[in-house]
Structure formats: structure tokens, C-alpha cells
Structure to design on (245 residues):
């Protein structure tokens, strides 16, 4: 149960909370592969489908723990490695990554995002908190955010409590005054809960909750969040009135 009287700011996940991430990544990988066919043909031939480059990226992730929180670095390094192995100039990796990264920002927002972010940001400051590499300004929603915190810049990612504490610092608030909203039960909800934040689980796919504590609030779409928050306030006021009576 939320205590909305304590909430003075919001931290908000991006991927799979505001847009579906894998369709976005898939399109970006295809655009990258199309570019490789024109500018690095040996690499395109050695990795004939985007999935092959994705598998190489996963291998680089296993081999480079120093890049575990830097998805851009992992992607760039995997492209460089693919080019070097195929006999293309690995110096092209930066340009190739820029092609991928530009398309990665072309997200398809869930239908409820603009309406809800406009309503929330009119009442409370919001910061983005993400393990990914989306840019709120390049995705077209920067006007709703006071700031953004990325795992690659901070050095640790969710669910580490330190990144939630840093998000609260970015808002200028104690962690107990921040409501974290996200889709991942562990990375978002458990991480925020253990850091001392209140939580909203955005469960668009209707998953079963499998952890040993309950989120402060569960919604199946952001569109239902404002009404759910109002209902939570009304319920809290009713319980207080009954206790006083």
C-alpha cells in the first residue's frame, strides 16, 4: 500500500515501461546490418543475419565484465570485433554504432505514455532511471523529465540500491520521498523497495508476482495509474477516518 502523502518525486524506468524494447532493438539491428552490407561487406557476409551480431554482443558481454553496465560500449566493441575478425577496418565501428544508436532512439511509445507523463510531471518532478541507453530527449519525451540517470554513467545499474539513491539525490529528495515506477519485478520493484522507495509495478503482460513482498501498487497500463493513485489516496483517507472514529 502506498503512502502518497510522503511522495514528492518520481523515478521512472524507460525500456518496457514506456515502450516495448525488443522491437526497437530489432529494428536498430536491421538498420545496422543494412549499413554493414554497404560499408563493411566482409562483416555483413561473416555475420549474415542480425541475430549473429547479437550473439557476438552477448559473447562480448560475458568476456568484458568491465562493460556490463555500458550497453553502448558493449555494442560498439562487438561491432569492432566483428569487423576485425571479418577483415574490415575496425575504425568503422564508431560510425556503424552511431547508425545503430540513432535508430535505437526511434521508439514506439505505448499509447498512454504522453498523457500520463504530462499529468504526473505537472504535479511532481520526474527523473528517468535506466540500465539501457535510450535518451529521453531523442525519444521525444524529454519535456517531462527533470533529469536522467544511466547505469553506464553511474557505474552500477538497477537493482543496486546506490543508483536509486543517486536518483533521489538528482531529485534533491530523500529516498523515502520518491516513488519508483517500472516493469521489472527485480530490477525495478525489488531494487527500489530495498533502497527505501515506494514502488509501482507496471505489469502490462499480466505476469504473476513471484517475490516475497508486494509492490506498493500494481497497474496493467500507465493509463490506469492516475486513477489508481487517486484510489489509493481515498483508501488511505478512509482507513484513517475509521481509525479516528
Amino acid at each position: 500500500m502506498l503512502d502518497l502523502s510522503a511522495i514528492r518525486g518520481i523515478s521512472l524506468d524507460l525500456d518496457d515501461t514506456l515502450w516495448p524494447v525488443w522491437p526497437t532493438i530489432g529494428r536498430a539491428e536491421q538498420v545496422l546490418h543494412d549499413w554493414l552490407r554497404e560499408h563493411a561487406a566482409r562483416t555483413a557476409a561473416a555475420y549474415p543475419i542480425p541475430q549473429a551480431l547479437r550473439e557476438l554482443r552477448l559473447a562480448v558481454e560475458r568476456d568484458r565484465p568491465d562493460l556490463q553496465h555500458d550497453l553502448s560500449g558493449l555494442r560498439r566493441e562487438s561491432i569492432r570485433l566483428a569487423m576485425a575478425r571479418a577483415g574490415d577496418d575496425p575504425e568503422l565501428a564508431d560510425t556503424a554504432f552511431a547508425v545503430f544508436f540513432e535508430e535505437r532512439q526511434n521508439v514506439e511509445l505505448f499509447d498512454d505514455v504522453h498523457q500520463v507523463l504530462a499529468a504526473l510531471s505537472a504535479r511532481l518532478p520526474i527523473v528517468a532511471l535506466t540500465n539501457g541507453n535510450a535518451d529521453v530527449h531523442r525519444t521525444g519525451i524529454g519535456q517531462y523529465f527533470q533529469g536522467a540517470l544511466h547505469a553506464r554513467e553511474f557505474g552500477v545499474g538497477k537493482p543496486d540500491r546506490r543508483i536509486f539513491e543517486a536518483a533521489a539525490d538528482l531529485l534533491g529528495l530523500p529516498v523515502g520521498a520518491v516513488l519508483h515506477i517500472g516493469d521489472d519485478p527485480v530490477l525495478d520493484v525489488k531494487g527500489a523497495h530495498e533502497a527505501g522507495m515506494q514502488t509501482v509495478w507496471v505489469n502490462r503482460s499480466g505476469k504473476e508476482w513471484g517475490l516475497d513482498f508486494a509492490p506498493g501498487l500494481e497497474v496493467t497500463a500507465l493509463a490506469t495509474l492516475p486513477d489508481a493513485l487517486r484510489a489509493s489516496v481515498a483508501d488511505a483517507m478512509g482507513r484513517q477516518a475509521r481509525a479516528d472514529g
